[in-house]
Specification:
The complex is a heterodimer of chains A (about 300) and B (about 270).
Chain A: E1 4-13, E2 16-26, E3 31-35, H1 42-50, E4 57-62, H2 70-74, E5 76-79, H3 91-101, H4 106-115, H5 131-143, E6 149-153, H6 161-176, E7 180-184, H7 188-194, E8 197-202, E9 205-210, H8 212-219, E10 223-229, H9 234-241, E11 244-247, E12 250-255, H10 260-268, E13 274-280, H11 284-292
Helix pairs in contact in A: 3-4, 3-5, 4-5, 8-11
Chain B: H1 2-16, H2 19-37, H3 39-45, H4 49-73, H5 78-83, H6 86-90, H7 96-130, H8 138-164, H9 168-197, H10 201-213, H11 215-223, H12 233-268
Classes of the chains: A alpha/beta (about 300), B mainly alpha (about 270).
Protein backbone atom coordinates (compact mmCIF):
# COMPACT_ATOMS: atom_id res chain seq x y z
CA UNK A 1 0.00 0.00 0.00
CA UNK A 2 1.24 3.49 -0.81
CA UNK A 3 2.04 5.16 2.52
CA UNK A 4 0.95 8.65 1.58
CA UNK A 5 -1.41 9.68 -1.22
CA UNK A 6 -2.21 13.35 -1.72
CA UNK A 7 -4.71 13.88 -4.53
CA UNK A 8 -5.60 17.23 -6.02
CA UNK A 9 -5.61 18.92 -2.61
CA UNK A 10 -6.50 22.60 -2.22
CA UNK A 11 -6.71 24.85 0.81
CA UNK A 12 -8.47 28.21 0.90
CA UNK A 13 -8.46 30.77 3.68
CA UNK A 14 -11.27 33.06 2.59
CA UNK A 15 -10.25 34.22 -0.89
CA UNK A 16 -6.62 33.26 -0.40
CA UNK A 17 -5.75 29.88 -1.89
CA UNK A 18 -2.52 28.72 -0.21
CA UNK A 19 -2.46 25.20 -1.68
CA UNK A 20 -3.75 24.63 -5.21
CA UNK A 21 -4.46 21.20 -6.63
CA UNK A 22 -1.41 19.45 -5.15
CA UNK A 23 -0.89 15.74 -5.84
CA UNK A 24 1.94 13.73 -4.32
CA UNK A 25 2.65 10.14 -3.32
CA UNK A 26 5.31 8.76 -1.03
CA UNK A 27 6.00 5.02 -1.01
CA UNK A 28 7.36 3.00 1.89
CA UNK A 29 11.13 3.43 2.12
CA UNK A 30 11.18 6.49 -0.12
CA UNK A 31 12.74 9.82 0.88
CA UNK A 32 11.06 12.80 -0.74
CA UNK A 33 12.28 16.37 -0.28
CA UNK A 34 9.71 19.12 -0.50
CA UNK A 35 11.25 22.41 -1.64
CA UNK A 36 9.75 25.84 -1.92
CA UNK A 37 10.05 29.47 -0.83
CA UNK A 38 8.62 30.58 2.48
CA UNK A 39 4.87 30.75 1.93
CA UNK A 40 4.92 28.20 -0.91
CA UNK A 41 2.42 26.06 1.02
CA UNK A 42 4.77 23.33 2.34
CA UNK A 43 3.80 23.69 6.01
CA UNK A 44 0.08 23.95 5.17
CA UNK A 45 0.39 20.73 3.16
CA UNK A 46 2.06 19.01 6.13
CA UNK A 47 -0.63 20.28 8.49
CA UNK A 48 -3.30 18.84 6.20
CA UNK A 49 -1.51 15.48 6.09
CA UNK A 50 -1.45 15.55 9.91
CA UNK A 51 -5.15 16.38 10.11
CA UNK A 52 -4.44 19.66 11.94
CA UNK A 53 -5.98 21.72 9.12
CA UNK A 54 -9.05 20.57 7.15
CA UNK A 55 -8.79 20.36 3.34
CA UNK A 56 -10.92 22.64 1.19
CA UNK A 57 -11.01 20.03 -1.59
CA UNK A 58 -9.20 16.90 -2.74
CA UNK A 59 -8.24 13.90 -0.64
CA UNK A 60 -5.37 12.67 1.51
CA UNK A 61 -4.84 9.08 2.62
CA UNK A 62 -2.24 7.98 5.16
CA UNK A 63 -1.97 4.17 4.97
CA UNK A 64 -5.44 4.23 3.46
CA UNK A 65 -6.86 6.21 6.41
CA UNK A 66 -8.18 9.76 6.65
CA UNK A 67 -5.67 12.31 7.98
CA UNK A 68 -6.11 12.97 11.71
CA UNK A 69 -7.67 9.55 12.34
CA UNK A 70 -6.22 7.64 15.27
CA UNK A 71 -4.57 5.08 12.94
CA UNK A 72 -3.07 7.83 10.77
CA UNK A 73 -1.77 9.77 13.76
CA UNK A 74 -0.41 6.60 15.36
CA UNK A 75 1.65 5.84 12.27
CA UNK A 76 3.11 9.33 11.68
CA UNK A 77 6.24 10.74 13.25
CA UNK A 78 6.20 14.53 12.99
CA UNK A 79 8.96 17.05 13.57
CA UNK A 80 7.56 20.59 13.39
CA UNK A 81 9.56 23.58 12.22
CA UNK A 82 11.14 25.27 15.28
CA UNK A 83 10.09 22.48 17.64
CA UNK A 84 9.44 23.51 21.25
CA UNK A 85 8.98 21.73 24.56
CA UNK A 86 8.16 22.65 28.14
CA UNK A 87 11.38 24.06 29.60
CA UNK A 88 10.70 22.69 33.10
CA UNK A 89 11.03 19.09 31.89
CA UNK A 90 14.20 17.17 31.19
CA UNK A 91 14.79 15.74 27.73
CA UNK A 92 14.30 12.23 29.09
CA UNK A 93 11.02 13.10 30.85
CA UNK A 94 9.68 14.74 27.71
CA UNK A 95 10.62 11.81 25.49
CA UNK A 96 9.24 9.23 27.97
CA UNK A 97 5.96 11.17 27.93
CA UNK A 98 5.75 10.99 24.14
CA UNK A 99 6.69 7.29 24.24
CA UNK A 100 3.78 6.59 26.61
CA UNK A 101 1.39 8.49 24.32
CA UNK A 102 2.54 6.31 21.42
CA UNK A 103 2.41 3.13 23.55
CA UNK A 104 6.13 2.62 23.01
CA UNK A 105 8.43 1.34 25.79
CA UNK A 106 10.42 4.00 27.65
CA UNK A 107 13.51 1.89 27.04
CA UNK A 108 13.25 2.48 23.29
CA UNK A 109 12.95 6.21 24.10
CA UNK A 110 16.24 5.96 25.99
CA UNK A 111 17.81 4.19 23.02
CA UNK A 112 16.68 7.03 20.76
CA UNK A 113 18.23 9.57 23.13
CA UNK A 114 21.45 7.69 22.65
CA UNK A 115 20.93 7.56 18.88
CA UNK A 116 20.55 11.33 18.59
CA UNK A 117 23.55 11.84 20.88
CA UNK A 118 21.71 13.29 23.85
CA UNK A 119 22.20 10.64 26.55
CA UNK A 120 24.63 12.83 28.48
CA UNK A 121 22.29 15.82 28.56
CA UNK A 122 19.08 13.80 28.85
CA UNK A 123 18.51 14.63 32.52
CA UNK A 124 19.08 18.34 32.17
CA UNK A 125 16.11 20.71 31.90
CA UNK A 126 15.14 21.48 28.29
CA UNK A 127 15.34 25.22 29.05
CA UNK A 128 19.13 24.82 29.26
CA UNK A 129 19.30 23.17 25.81
CA UNK A 130 20.69 24.80 22.68
CA UNK A 131 18.51 24.95 19.55
CA UNK A 132 20.36 21.98 18.10
CA UNK A 133 19.70 19.91 21.23
CA UNK A 134 15.99 20.73 21.17
CA UNK A 135 15.95 19.79 17.50
CA UNK A 136 17.50 16.43 18.40
CA UNK A 137 14.80 15.79 21.04
CA UNK A 138 12.30 16.71 18.33
CA UNK A 139 13.87 14.23 15.95
CA UNK A 140 13.94 11.51 18.64
CA UNK A 141 10.21 11.93 19.34
CA UNK A 142 9.46 11.78 15.61
CA UNK A 143 11.31 8.44 15.41
CA UNK A 144 9.45 6.88 18.38
CA UNK A 145 7.80 3.58 17.53
CA UNK A 146 9.34 3.40 14.01
CA UNK A 147 6.66 5.47 12.22
CA UNK A 148 5.32 4.36 8.84
CA UNK A 149 5.47 7.98 7.67
CA UNK A 150 7.97 10.59 8.88
CA UNK A 151 6.97 14.21 8.25
CA UNK A 152 9.91 16.49 8.93
CA UNK A 153 9.52 20.24 8.56
CA UNK A 154 12.93 21.91 8.22
CA UNK A 155 14.56 19.11 10.23
CA UNK A 156 18.18 20.26 9.97
CA UNK A 157 17.72 23.90 10.93
CA UNK A 158 19.86 24.61 13.98
CA UNK A 159 22.08 21.56 13.44
CA UNK A 160 25.80 21.97 12.75
CA UNK A 161 27.31 20.25 9.65
CA UNK A 162 28.37 17.12 11.56
CA UNK A 163 24.97 16.72 13.17
CA UNK A 164 23.34 17.25 9.78
CA UNK A 165 25.39 14.42 8.40
CA UNK A 166 24.35 12.18 11.32
CA UNK A 167 20.75 13.23 10.82
CA UNK A 168 20.77 12.03 7.22
CA UNK A 169 22.37 8.76 8.33
CA UNK A 170 19.49 8.24 10.76
CA UNK A 171 17.06 9.13 7.97
CA UNK A 172 18.66 6.59 5.67
CA UNK A 173 18.31 3.84 8.29
CA UNK A 174 14.71 4.85 8.80
CA UNK A 175 13.94 4.66 5.07
CA UNK A 176 15.79 1.35 4.80
CA UNK A 177 13.51 -0.08 7.47
CA UNK A 178 10.47 0.89 5.35
CA UNK A 179 9.49 4.34 6.60
CA UNK A 180 8.23 6.79 4.00
CA UNK A 181 9.96 10.12 4.58
CA UNK A 182 8.69 13.52 3.49
CA UNK A 183 10.92 16.41 4.54
CA UNK A 184 11.01 20.06 3.71
CA UNK A 185 14.26 21.95 3.74
CA UNK A 186 16.02 25.08 2.63
CA UNK A 187 19.44 23.49 2.84
CA UNK A 188 19.49 22.41 -0.80
CA UNK A 189 23.00 21.13 -1.18
CA UNK A 190 22.63 18.49 1.53
CA UNK A 191 19.47 17.11 -0.12
CA UNK A 192 21.22 16.32 -3.42
CA UNK A 193 22.66 13.03 -2.33
CA UNK A 194 20.43 12.17 0.59
CA UNK A 195 16.94 11.99 -0.92
CA UNK A 196 15.32 9.86 -3.61
CA UNK A 197 12.94 12.38 -5.08
CA UNK A 198 12.53 16.16 -5.14
CA UNK A 199 9.15 17.93 -5.18
CA UNK A 200 9.21 21.67 -5.80
CA UNK A 201 6.31 23.89 -4.71
CA UNK A 202 5.68 27.52 -5.53
CA UNK A 203 2.64 29.69 -4.75
CA UNK A 204 0.72 26.65 -3.55
CA UNK A 205 1.32 24.59 -6.70
CA UNK A 206 3.54 21.61 -7.46
CA UNK A 207 5.99 22.60 -10.21
CA UNK A 208 8.15 19.51 -10.33
CA UNK A 209 8.16 16.10 -8.70
CA UNK A 210 10.80 13.66 -9.89
CA UNK A 211 14.20 12.07 -9.28
CA UNK A 212 17.05 14.55 -9.34
CA UNK A 213 18.58 13.14 -12.55
CA UNK A 214 15.23 13.37 -14.35
CA UNK A 215 14.77 16.95 -13.16
CA UNK A 216 18.23 17.79 -14.52
CA UNK A 217 17.41 16.25 -17.90
CA UNK A 218 14.12 18.02 -18.32
CA UNK A 219 15.46 21.38 -17.12
CA UNK A 220 18.34 21.16 -19.68
CA UNK A 221 20.54 23.30 -17.47
CA UNK A 222 24.04 23.68 -18.94
CA UNK A 223 26.86 21.58 -17.52
CA UNK A 224 29.93 23.64 -16.57
CA UNK A 225 33.34 22.32 -17.55
CA UNK A 226 36.38 23.97 -16.01
CA UNK A 227 39.61 23.26 -17.87
CA UNK A 228 43.03 23.99 -16.38
CA UNK A 229 45.71 24.45 -19.04
CA UNK A 230 49.41 25.23 -19.13
CA UNK A 231 49.80 29.04 -18.89
CA UNK A 232 50.85 29.49 -22.50
CA UNK A 233 47.94 27.45 -23.95
CA UNK A 234 44.98 29.02 -22.13
CA UNK A 235 44.17 31.51 -24.89
CA UNK A 236 44.32 28.89 -27.65
CA UNK A 237 42.07 26.45 -25.73
CA UNK A 238 39.57 29.24 -24.96
CA UNK A 239 39.41 30.38 -28.58
CA UNK A 240 39.18 26.95 -30.18
CA UNK A 241 36.59 25.53 -27.74
CA UNK A 242 34.59 28.74 -27.55
CA UNK A 243 35.03 29.13 -23.80
CA UNK A 244 35.84 31.98 -21.48
CA UNK A 245 39.28 32.45 -20.04
CA UNK A 246 38.97 32.98 -16.29
CA UNK A 247 42.57 33.59 -15.19
CA UNK A 248 46.07 32.79 -16.33
CA UNK A 249 45.47 29.08 -16.91
CA UNK A 250 41.74 28.33 -16.56
CA UNK A 251 39.00 28.17 -19.17
CA UNK A 252 35.31 27.87 -18.38
CA UNK A 253 33.04 26.05 -20.85
CA UNK A 254 29.37 25.10 -20.84
CA UNK A 255 27.53 22.35 -22.71
CA UNK A 256 24.37 20.28 -22.56
CA UNK A 257 24.22 16.75 -21.10
CA UNK A 258 24.17 15.12 -24.56
CA UNK A 259 27.18 17.14 -25.72
CA UNK A 260 29.29 16.31 -22.69
CA UNK A 261 31.21 13.29 -24.04
CA UNK A 262 31.99 15.01 -27.34
CA UNK A 263 33.21 18.07 -25.45
CA UNK A 264 35.52 15.93 -23.29
CA UNK A 265 36.90 14.39 -26.51
CA UNK A 266 37.72 17.82 -27.88
CA UNK A 267 39.45 18.78 -24.63
CA UNK A 268 41.61 15.67 -24.44
CA UNK A 269 42.69 16.25 -28.06
CA UNK A 270 44.80 19.18 -26.77
CA UNK A 271 47.02 16.58 -25.08
CA UNK A 272 49.84 18.04 -22.94
CA UNK A 273 48.23 21.51 -22.94
CA UNK A 274 45.52 20.28 -20.53
CA UNK A 275 46.40 19.88 -16.86
CA UNK A 276 42.99 19.14 -15.35
CA UNK A 277 39.28 18.95 -16.22
CA UNK A 278 36.41 19.48 -13.79
CA UNK A 279 32.81 18.69 -14.83
CA UNK A 280 30.01 20.22 -12.77
CA UNK A 281 26.35 19.38 -13.47
CA UNK A 282 23.71 22.01 -12.58
CA UNK A 283 23.44 22.13 -8.78
CA UNK A 284 20.17 21.56 -6.98
CA UNK A 285 20.23 25.24 -6.19
CA UNK A 286 20.25 26.12 -9.91
CA UNK A 287 17.56 23.53 -10.58
CA UNK A 288 15.46 24.92 -7.78
CA UNK A 289 15.88 28.45 -9.14
CA UNK A 290 14.96 27.21 -12.62
CA UNK A 291 11.79 25.41 -11.52
CA UNK A 292 10.64 28.00 -9.01
CA UNK A 293 10.98 30.70 -11.67
CA UNK A 294 8.31 28.94 -13.73
CA UNK A 295 5.13 30.92 -13.36
CA UNK A 296 2.49 28.48 -12.11
CA UNK A 297 -0.29 30.59 -13.63
CA UNK A 298 1.08 29.93 -17.12
CA UNK A 299 1.25 26.17 -16.76
CA UNK B 1 -4.30 5.48 29.41
CA UNK B 2 -3.45 8.65 27.46
CA UNK B 3 -5.41 10.66 30.05
CA UNK B 4 -3.21 9.29 32.83
CA UNK B 5 -0.07 10.05 30.76
CA UNK B 6 -1.15 13.66 30.27
CA UNK B 7 -2.14 13.99 33.95
CA UNK B 8 1.21 12.57 35.04
CA UNK B 9 3.15 15.10 32.97
CA UNK B 10 1.00 18.02 34.14
CA UNK B 11 1.52 17.06 37.80
CA UNK B 12 5.25 16.95 37.16
CA UNK B 13 5.10 20.41 35.53
CA UNK B 14 2.97 21.76 38.41
CA UNK B 15 5.55 20.46 40.89
CA UNK B 16 8.42 22.03 38.94
CA UNK B 17 6.60 25.34 38.57
CA UNK B 18 6.03 25.37 42.34
CA UNK B 19 2.24 25.41 41.83
CA UNK B 20 1.84 22.42 44.17
CA UNK B 21 3.98 24.00 46.89
CA UNK B 22 2.34 27.43 46.46
CA UNK B 23 -1.22 26.06 46.59
CA UNK B 24 -0.53 23.86 49.62
CA UNK B 25 1.30 26.66 51.41
CA UNK B 26 -1.45 29.21 50.73
CA UNK B 27 -4.25 26.94 51.93
CA UNK B 28 -2.29 25.67 54.95
CA UNK B 29 -1.19 29.10 56.07
CA UNK B 30 -4.63 30.65 55.90
CA UNK B 31 -6.52 27.72 57.42
CA UNK B 32 -4.07 27.46 60.34
CA UNK B 33 -4.23 31.22 61.03
CA UNK B 34 -8.03 31.23 60.81
CA UNK B 35 -8.36 28.15 63.03
CA UNK B 36 -6.14 29.71 65.70
CA UNK B 37 -7.83 33.11 65.36
CA UNK B 38 -11.23 31.38 65.65
CA UNK B 39 -10.40 30.57 69.29
CA UNK B 40 -11.50 33.90 70.70
CA UNK B 41 -15.27 33.82 70.19
CA UNK B 42 -15.64 30.12 70.95
CA UNK B 43 -15.54 30.45 74.72
CA UNK B 44 -18.23 33.06 75.02
CA UNK B 45 -20.58 31.75 72.32
CA UNK B 46 -20.19 28.09 73.12
CA UNK B 47 -20.29 27.07 69.48
CA UNK B 48 -18.63 23.93 68.16
CA UNK B 49 -15.05 25.19 67.72
CA UNK B 50 -14.69 23.53 64.33
CA UNK B 51 -17.85 25.29 63.09
CA UNK B 52 -16.29 28.66 63.93
CA UNK B 53 -13.14 27.73 62.07
CA UNK B 54 -15.16 26.45 59.11
CA UNK B 55 -17.10 29.71 58.84
CA UNK B 56 -13.86 31.67 58.63
CA UNK B 57 -12.23 29.17 56.26
CA UNK B 58 -15.32 29.22 54.01
CA UNK B 59 -15.24 33.01 53.77
CA UNK B 60 -11.59 32.82 52.80
CA UNK B 61 -12.01 29.87 50.45
CA UNK B 62 -14.60 31.78 48.43
CA UNK B 63 -11.71 34.02 47.37
CA UNK B 64 -8.81 31.61 47.45
CA UNK B 65 -10.14 28.48 45.73
CA UNK B 66 -11.43 30.22 42.57
CA UNK B 67 -8.10 32.08 42.44
CA UNK B 68 -6.02 28.88 42.70
CA UNK B 69 -8.32 27.19 40.15
CA UNK B 70 -7.85 30.00 37.64
CA UNK B 71 -4.08 30.26 38.28
CA UNK B 72 -3.66 26.55 37.61
CA UNK B 73 -5.69 26.61 34.40
CA UNK B 74 -5.30 29.92 32.55
CA UNK B 75 -2.04 28.81 30.93
CA UNK B 76 -3.16 25.26 30.06
CA UNK B 77 -4.00 25.82 26.40
CA UNK B 78 -2.83 29.39 25.68
CA UNK B 79 0.60 28.63 27.18
CA UNK B 80 1.00 25.58 24.95
CA UNK B 81 -0.13 27.56 21.92
CA UNK B 82 2.40 30.31 22.66
CA UNK B 83 5.29 27.94 23.41
CA UNK B 84 4.50 26.07 20.20
CA UNK B 85 4.00 22.72 21.92
CA UNK B 86 0.29 22.47 21.10
CA UNK B 87 0.60 21.51 17.41
CA UNK B 88 2.99 18.65 18.16
CA UNK B 89 0.82 17.34 21.02
CA UNK B 90 -2.22 17.36 18.73
CA UNK B 91 -0.47 15.08 16.22
CA UNK B 92 -0.21 12.28 18.79
CA UNK B 93 -2.89 9.56 18.73
CA UNK B 94 -5.19 10.95 21.42
CA UNK B 95 -8.27 13.17 21.33
CA UNK B 96 -8.48 16.76 22.49
CA UNK B 97 -10.97 15.63 25.16
CA UNK B 98 -8.34 13.24 26.53
CA UNK B 99 -5.76 16.05 26.65
CA UNK B 100 -8.14 18.38 28.50
CA UNK B 101 -9.40 15.72 30.93
CA UNK B 102 -5.79 14.72 31.65
CA UNK B 103 -4.87 18.31 32.46
CA UNK B 104 -8.02 18.67 34.56
CA UNK B 105 -7.22 15.54 36.59
CA UNK B 106 -3.73 16.87 37.34
CA UNK B 107 -4.82 20.36 38.34
CA UNK B 108 -7.79 19.01 40.29
CA UNK B 109 -5.42 16.73 42.24
CA UNK B 110 -3.16 19.68 43.08
CA UNK B 111 -6.17 21.66 44.31
CA UNK B 112 -7.58 18.67 46.25
CA UNK B 113 -4.22 18.13 47.92
CA UNK B 114 -3.97 21.78 48.95
CA UNK B 115 -7.53 21.85 50.36
CA UNK B 116 -7.12 18.46 52.07
CA UNK B 117 -3.89 19.46 53.80
CA UNK B 118 -5.34 22.83 54.84
CA UNK B 119 -8.51 21.34 56.29
CA UNK B 120 -6.66 18.44 57.89
CA UNK B 121 -4.37 20.91 59.67
CA UNK B 122 -7.42 22.84 60.86
CA UNK B 123 -9.06 19.63 62.18
CA UNK B 124 -5.88 18.49 63.92
CA UNK B 125 -5.38 21.89 65.56
CA UNK B 126 -9.00 21.97 66.76
CA UNK B 127 -8.90 18.43 68.13
CA UNK B 128 -5.57 19.15 69.78
CA UNK B 129 -7.04 22.20 71.54
CA UNK B 130 -10.55 20.98 72.42
CA UNK B 131 -10.47 17.20 72.22
CA UNK B 132 -12.71 14.99 70.11
CA UNK B 133 -15.84 15.09 72.25
CA UNK B 134 -17.79 18.11 70.96
CA UNK B 135 -16.57 18.16 67.40
CA UNK B 136 -18.76 17.24 64.43
CA UNK B 137 -16.84 16.34 61.30
CA UNK B 138 -19.73 16.40 58.81
CA UNK B 139 -19.38 20.18 58.11
CA UNK B 140 -15.66 19.67 57.48
CA UNK B 141 -16.30 16.94 54.94
CA UNK B 142 -19.00 19.11 53.34
CA UNK B 143 -16.53 22.00 53.11
CA UNK B 144 -13.94 19.70 51.53
CA UNK B 145 -16.31 18.32 48.90
CA UNK B 146 -17.85 21.68 48.02
CA UNK B 147 -14.36 23.23 47.81
CA UNK B 148 -13.48 20.60 45.20
CA UNK B 149 -16.67 21.41 43.27
CA UNK B 150 -15.93 25.14 43.42
CA UNK B 151 -12.33 24.54 42.33
CA UNK B 152 -13.44 22.25 39.47
CA UNK B 153 -15.84 24.93 38.22
CA UNK B 154 -13.08 27.55 38.09
CA UNK B 155 -10.62 25.13 36.51
CA UNK B 156 -13.17 24.62 33.72
CA UNK B 157 -13.70 28.37 33.40
CA UNK B 158 -9.91 28.84 33.25
CA UNK B 159 -9.54 26.27 30.44
CA UNK B 160 -12.36 27.95 28.51
CA UNK B 161 -10.61 31.33 28.76
CA UNK B 162 -7.27 29.70 27.92
CA UNK B 163 -8.75 28.16 24.75
CA UNK B 164 -10.58 31.30 23.61
CA UNK B 165 -7.61 33.63 24.19
CA UNK B 166 -4.37 32.55 22.50
CA UNK B 167 -1.93 34.65 24.59
CA UNK B 168 -1.30 33.58 28.20
CA UNK B 169 -0.83 37.24 29.20
CA UNK B 170 -4.31 38.15 27.99
CA UNK B 171 -5.73 34.91 29.43
CA UNK B 172 -4.38 35.78 32.89
CA UNK B 173 -5.95 39.24 32.67
CA UNK B 174 -9.33 37.82 31.66
CA UNK B 175 -9.05 35.22 34.45
CA UNK B 176 -8.47 37.93 37.07
CA UNK B 177 -11.47 39.90 35.79
CA UNK B 178 -13.65 36.76 35.99
CA UNK B 179 -12.40 36.13 39.52
CA UNK B 180 -13.15 39.70 40.56
CA UNK B 181 -16.65 39.55 39.08
CA UNK B 182 -17.53 36.18 40.62
CA UNK B 183 -16.24 36.73 44.14
CA UNK B 184 -16.71 40.49 44.61
CA UNK B 185 -18.63 42.42 41.97
CA UNK B 186 -21.45 39.92 41.48
CA UNK B 187 -22.43 40.17 45.17
CA UNK B 188 -22.11 43.94 45.14
CA UNK B 189 -24.40 44.09 42.11
CA UNK B 190 -26.96 41.87 43.81
CA UNK B 191 -26.79 43.93 47.00
CA UNK B 192 -27.39 47.07 44.93
CA UNK B 193 -30.39 45.42 43.29
CA UNK B 194 -31.70 44.35 46.72
CA UNK B 195 -31.49 47.88 48.04
CA UNK B 196 -33.19 49.26 44.94
CA UNK B 197 -35.96 46.68 45.16
CA UNK B 198 -36.63 47.44 48.85
CA UNK B 199 -37.92 44.01 49.75
CA UNK B 200 -40.17 43.65 46.70
CA UNK B 201 -40.82 40.60 44.53
CA UNK B 202 -37.25 40.59 43.16
CA UNK B 203 -35.89 40.08 46.68
CA UNK B 204 -38.25 37.20 47.38
CA UNK B 205 -38.28 35.30 44.11
CA UNK B 206 -35.46 36.15 41.67
CA UNK B 207 -32.67 37.16 44.05
CA UNK B 208 -32.24 33.80 45.85
CA UNK B 209 -31.78 32.01 42.54
CA UNK B 210 -29.48 34.66 41.14
CA UNK B 211 -27.41 34.28 44.28
CA UNK B 212 -26.93 30.52 43.95
CA UNK B 213 -26.36 30.88 40.21
CA UNK B 214 -22.88 32.07 41.20
CA UNK B 215 -20.99 28.97 42.38
CA UNK B 216 -18.98 31.05 44.84
CA UNK B 217 -22.17 32.18 46.56
CA UNK B 218 -23.69 28.69 46.47
CA UNK B 219 -20.49 27.51 48.15
CA UNK B 220 -20.74 30.18 50.82
CA UNK B 221 -24.41 29.45 51.52
CA UNK B 222 -23.97 25.72 51.81
CA UNK B 223 -21.06 25.99 54.24
CA UNK B 224 -21.90 28.89 56.53
CA UNK B 225 -24.54 27.88 59.07
CA UNK B 226 -27.12 30.50 60.05
CA UNK B 227 -25.73 30.65 63.59
CA UNK B 228 -22.41 31.81 62.25
CA UNK B 229 -20.94 35.09 63.33
CA UNK B 230 -20.41 36.15 59.72
CA UNK B 231 -21.70 39.61 58.90
CA UNK B 232 -23.46 38.50 55.74
CA UNK B 233 -24.92 35.36 57.25
CA UNK B 234 -28.39 36.67 58.10
CA UNK B 235 -29.06 38.00 54.59
CA UNK B 236 -27.51 35.03 52.90
CA UNK B 237 -29.20 32.61 55.26
CA UNK B 238 -32.60 34.03 54.42
CA UNK B 239 -31.86 33.84 50.73
CA UNK B 240 -30.53 30.34 51.15
CA UNK B 241 -33.81 29.27 52.66
CA UNK B 242 -35.73 30.20 49.50
CA UNK B 243 -33.50 28.48 46.94
CA UNK B 244 -32.72 25.82 49.52
CA UNK B 245 -30.08 23.17 49.59
CA UNK B 246 -31.34 21.95 46.21
CA UNK B 247 -30.42 25.21 44.48
CA UNK B 248 -26.99 25.26 46.06
CA UNK B 249 -26.30 21.66 45.09
CA UNK B 250 -27.50 22.17 41.52
CA UNK B 251 -25.14 25.15 41.24
CA UNK B 252 -22.14 23.34 42.73
CA UNK B 253 -22.65 20.16 40.68
CA UNK B 254 -23.83 21.92 37.54
CA UNK B 255 -21.06 24.53 37.27
CA UNK B 256 -18.11 22.12 37.06
CA UNK B 257 -19.95 20.09 34.40
CA UNK B 258 -21.01 23.17 32.45
CA UNK B 259 -17.56 24.78 32.71
CA UNK B 260 -15.79 21.62 31.52
CA UNK B 261 -18.26 21.26 28.68
CA UNK B 262 -17.61 24.88 27.64
CA UNK B 263 -13.86 24.26 27.90
CA UNK B 264 -14.11 21.16 25.69
CA UNK B 265 -16.10 22.95 23.00
CA UNK B 266 -13.74 25.97 23.10
CA UNK B 267 -10.65 23.70 22.92
CA UNK B 268 -12.18 21.77 20.00
CA UNK B 269 -12.18 25.04 18.01
CA UNK B 270 -8.55 25.94 18.75
CA UNK B 271 -6.44 25.96 15.57
CA UNK B 272 -2.83 24.99 16.32
Amino acid sequence: MTTLIVENVSKKYGDLETVRGISLTVQAGERVALLGHNGAGKTTLMQMILGLTPLTSGSIKVLGQAPGSRVARGSIGFLPESVAFHGALSGREQLHHFARLKSVSVRSADELLDRVGLSDAADRKIRTYSKGMRQRIGLAQALLGKPKLALLDEPTSGLDPILRHEFYDILEDLANSGTAVLLSSHALTELETRTDRIAIMSKGMMLADNELSELRLSARLPIRVNVTTTPSQADRVATELGGERINGCSVSLTCQQDEKVAMLGLITAFGEAIKDVEVMPGSLEELYRYYSAINPEEQ
Amino acid sequence: MSIITIARLEILISRRNMWVATSVLLMSLFTVVLTLAGDAPTGSLGVDPLVVAISSITTLSVYLIPLIGLLLSFDAISGEAERGTLALNLTYPLSRAEILVGKFLAHFSVLALAVAIGLALSAVLTVWQYGMADIKFAPLIRLFLTSLALGAAFLGIGYTVSSLVRQPGVASGVAIVIWLVCVVLYDLGLLGALVADGGGSFTKTVFPWLLVANPADAFRLINIPETSVSVLSSDLGAAGAVSGMKGQLISLVGWPILALFLALSAFARVKP
